[in-house]
Amino acid sequence: MTQERKSVDAAQLQRSLRFSKLPEPVRLEDTVEERPAAPHDSVSGAYNADWWLIRMGGL
Predict the structure, then answer these.
(1) DSSP state of 53
(2) Is pTM, for the whole model, over 0.85?
(3) pLDDT digits (tens, 9 = 90+) for 1-59
């Protein structure tokens, strides 16, 4: 009877431990960010980087 020995290096062992199972599923609630919309200040001409979100309805 002969026993086969497989030599596994440390990097291969780390890869097999890391990728041997699927990650935990992400809940849909955790993928959405909700922030209150602020009205556009057109009088002072202040720039709001999120103005297009307000105008387009948050597409």
Answers:
(1) H
(2) no
(3) 555 556 668 889 988 888 888 889 999 988 888 877 776 666 776 777 777 777 766 55
Token representation of residue 48: 């709001």
Cα–Cα–Cα angle for 11, 14, 17, rounded to 5 degrees? 150
Residue 20's identity, in one-letter code, is S
> In angstroms, what CA-CA distances link 52 with 24, 31, 32, 39, 40?
34, 21, 18, 11, 10
DSSP 7-46: ---HHHHHHHHHSSSPPPPPPGGGG----PPPPP-TTTT-
